Amino acid sequence: MSADTVIQWAHDSVNFWWGCTKVSRGCKYCYAASLAARLSKGQATWGPTGKRWLRAHVALGELLRLERRAIRRGERRRVFINSMADTFEDHPELATVRSILFTAAPCVPHLDLLLLTKRPENVRKMVPAEWLAGKWPANAWLGVSTEDQATADVRVPLLLSLPAPIRFISAEPLVGALDLSCVAGDESGQIDALRGVVFCDGRNEPAETPRIDWVIAGGESGQSAAPCDLDWLRSLRDQCAAAGTAFFLKQLGKRPVDTIRDGDRVREVVRLSLKDGHGGDMAEWPADLRVRQLPAPSLSRGSQLSTLSSP
User: What's this model's pTM, rounded to 2 decimal places?
Assistant: First the structure.
């Protein structure tokens, strides 16, 4: 899968392997598992003992072609890495191919590589040591999936502890209300992940911490998708606006519902009827939710394209 991805927040997707293991509620109706079952001809299967379809050399060639095209056109491109997998899955087949990906990252400086994971606890032990010692590539963005408050409370503090140049959140599929201004930290207190402050017990002033640069949100798709309350999406939009954080609404999902209120009283809960099965057509959305913002692109550190060659 490369180029012209249907994922609205990226220009392209490149997969160094296919296959994963479901780890939380957000994985329940995994699109990648369904695609792999249809398209991989058994080369990719899900679960801890499943097979991973390794395609590092093909993916490397795709990255280099995208880099050359970006240079030729004088543009930057956002590339979703491993849309059919999780880059930080701890699986015995993946150490070598993951190393190839990390070696390639600084060699394609005109591409912003979006690394999205549900396993931020593995990042520190899997990325190269130099990334943690001040040499994290400027084009390697790091994100975590947070489908509800419980997953945000676990994953967001881990994301903030890592020195990625751009940190982002994918609140998709959103299956519950999410307050990123009040994420549970460790014993130190509550984290406002959008403003980059920690409110600590026993301190008069909040302490500084890294912040989230971008929030992507969307409802669940698929025939058995859970309803997505549009007020959850509006809340995230407003949290981001108040903190000056980029917000990108990808889709409303299969079953968006809207709450009609009279002041504080709920008058009616309405399910929206949409032609787009994923709720991805902005023309069908309430006007106030048509928000798709992007963070500032990372800075290029100079081309190292010559250090790699296409297979």
Answer: 0.90
